[in-house]
Design a protein that fits this description.
4 strands; about 110 residues; alpha+beta; single chain
Length: about 110
């Protein structure tokens, strides 16, 4: 992971990640995605958190007319606790199902 991160200038800070974990689940009518990255230090985790929050803010500024992206950005939370950075996306399951169905219909009409 760290080797690939170094290829993108914006992602250099992520080369400080030592390990990662991805969790996808459903609670009630909500679907969540959680990504945990363990950094080499608490300082590196804080930097990773700040870069991620900056990328989300940049996306919100540059794509404010893209409602789907704005919904995704607003549903995303980034935290750092000691040397672990956690990114969580939490959305209503019906919204996700509807977007998938819309995309499948769009693809089948081509």
């Amino acid at each position: 992971f760290a080797d690939n991160a170094a290829q993108l200038p914006q992602a250099r800070v992520f080369k400080n990640a030592e390990a990662g974990q991805v969790i996808v689940g459903e609670v009630g009518t909500r679907v969540f995605l959680t990504i945990n990255l363990r950094a080499r230090s608490a300082e590196a985790a804080a930097q990773m958190q700040q870069v991620t929050q900056g990328l989300l803010a940049l996306g919100a500024l540059n794509q404010s007319d893209n409602q789907d992206l704005m919904t995704l950005i607003q549903a995303t939370k980034v935290t750092a606790n000691d040397a672990v950075v956690t990114l969580t996306v939490d959305l209503p399951a019906p919204t996700i199902v509807q977007k998938i169905q819309d995309k499948l219909r769009q693809e089948s009409s081509r």
